Amino acid sequence: MTTDAVVPTAAVRVATPADVGLVIEMAERAASRLRGQRGADVMLAREATVPSATRLAEWMSSGDATVLLGLLDGQPVGVIAAHVDVLVGGERLAVIPVLWVDEEARAVSVGEALLNAIVDWARAQGCAALDAYALPGERITKNFFEAAGFKARLLTVHHRLDDSA
């Protein structure tokens, strides 16, 4: 007797204004998982802030930004957001400040589907490259991006000017 295992289906869709609360909730979960790690406070205050409802509305209505939801069997379990920065010289760079997949939905291709969709979006925007963020201690995140062809391009060093090291 054989039992056919049900394989969950990963998909991606564009987030809508009705999804703003869910997107903020997922971004907060991502931020809370990072807090306390080396470099997280500055990264969350500078490069990867939890977007406000106003910021999300701007991204959702801008041609130079997008917010996508990752779905598992039709249910939202992940989010990715990206915006375009125009560099000196005019080259377009897609920047990913938000990426989250619920723990129970990892390792079933939701993250890969989100990242592939952002790569396609960035190409359609005329971007030459993408940037994403990974903290020094986030080996799983680093490995995820490297498996998708990302390479570290910059190491940022940091020195606090108070006694907190």
**Count of discrete structural domains:** 1
What is the terminal separation in angstroms? 61 Å
Which radius of gyration do the C-alpha atoms yield? 17 Å
User: What's the architecture in CATH terms?
Assistant: 3-Layer(aba) Sandwich
Largest sheet: 5 strands, mixed
Please report the total strand number as a whole number: 5
CATH fold assignment: Aminopeptidase
The CATH superfamily turns out to be Gcn5-related N-acetyltransferase (GNAT)
Query: How would you classify the helix and strand content by structural class?
Result: alpha+beta
Helix % is: 25-40%
- Topology pattern, helix = H, strand = E: EHHHEEEHEH
The dominant shape is: globular
* SS element count, helices: 5
Arithmetic mean of pLDDT: 93
The unreliable regions are none
Strand order of the largest sheet: 1-2-3-4-5
Percent of sequence in beta strands: 15-25%
Quick one: CATH class?
Alpha Beta
